[in-house]
Design brief:
By secondary structure, the chain is α/β, with parallel strands linked by helices. It has 2 domains: 69 residues, Roll (Ubiquitin-like (UB roll)); 145 residues, Rossmann fold (3-Layer(aba) Sandwich). A 6-stranded mixed β-sheet has the order 7-8-9-10-11-12, with no helix packed on it. Strand 10, helix 5 and strand 11 form a beta-alpha-beta unit. The longest helix has 44 residues. The N and C termini lie far apart (126 Å).
């Protein structure tokens, strides 16, 4: 076996074609080594340059945050003090997502907070608020009849406290059944009777109900007999079923009704034939 290997080896060495291929291989290796070495050196220099640039960006006081701009359409603007970023004052080291999460967690009426870097030293925070569409009264003292009003949005989320006097520009939702001990700013009450009021409000909005701006009150004490008030003198009994069809019926018949501002009326659209009548006015 050894003799065969030696013979094969000796024949290979005497083979001129084999010798030529070996020389070509060594030459190609030498030629490839030079560009590789040059590329390696270039990579090292680039790495050093990038590392030096990063050190400059992170250490230079030129990029220390000195201003936070809040873009907010509401008068009670959100505040995010510079003191909150003292540990990482460099603009490139500030965690933008953490700033956004903090604001969305601390302010129940903030839907999204978008944070941007404005070089060299400013953070810009743009706030999108949740829009209140109604208010609910919550009994504080039943004996004295004292209520605190809270703003709610279409998601049945409590956004803020109004006080003991309701806002004049938002409808009041009665009968939601929310107790004072349950109230928490930011909490969602989708599973309460409040969601029926929001279902109704959503349908009125989608159908572009012409008198939506004159909606003053929604009563959900009994969902099957749910009603709402227009201008405080017209009660609409609508229930909680087939809301799109019932709202369409209401929008069609309202222009035909003769409603006097000093009289109390009601209209019932829960049945096939609507009912319109005066209440027992004093």
């Amino acid at each position: 076996m050894a003799r065969l290997r030696m013979r094969f080896r000796s024949k290979s060495l005497r083979n001129p074609f084999f010798v030529l291929r070996s020389r070509q291989l060594r030459q190609s290796v030498r030629r490839g080594a030079a560009p590789f070495a040059a590329a390696l050196i270039a990579a090292v220099f680039i790495g050093l340059a990038v590392g030096g640039m990063r050190s400059f960006l992170y250490a230079s006081p030129f990029f220390t945050v000195s201003e936070i701009e809040v873009i907010d359409k509401y008068p009670d603007m959100v505040e995010y003090p510079l003191a909150r970023i003292k540990q990482t004052p460099n603009i490139f080291l500030v965690d933008l997502r953490e700033v956004s999460r903090y604001l969305e967690r601390e302010y129940a009426d903030i839907q999204t907070a978008t944070v941007r870097r404005v070089l060299p030293n400013k953070l810009q925070i743009e706030v999108l608020r949740r829009r209140p569409v109604a208010q609910i009264p919550v009994a504080v003292d039943k004996k004295s009849g004292t209520f605190t009003y809270y703003l709610v949005n279409e998601e049945c989320r409590i956004l803020a406290a109004v006080g003991t006097t309701p806002r004049f520009d938002l409808p009041i939702i009665d009968g939601a059944g929310i107790r004072a001990a349950e109230v928490e700013i930011g909490r969602n009450f989708r599973r309460s009777s409040l969601h029926w009021a929001m279902e109704l409000y959503g349908v009125l909005q989608q159908r572009k109900f012409p008198l939506l701006s004159r909606l003053t009150r929604i009563d959900v004490s009994d969902a099957r007999s749910m009603s709402f008030y227009i201008d405080a003198n017209l009660e609409v009994k609508i229930g909680n079923r087939d809301l799109p069809q019932r709202v369409a019926t209401l929008a069609a018949v309202l222009p035909k009704l003769d409603v006097l501002p000093d009289q109390q009326y009601y209209i019932d659209v829960r049945f096939k034939d609507f009912i319109f009548a005066k209440k027992n006015n004093p």
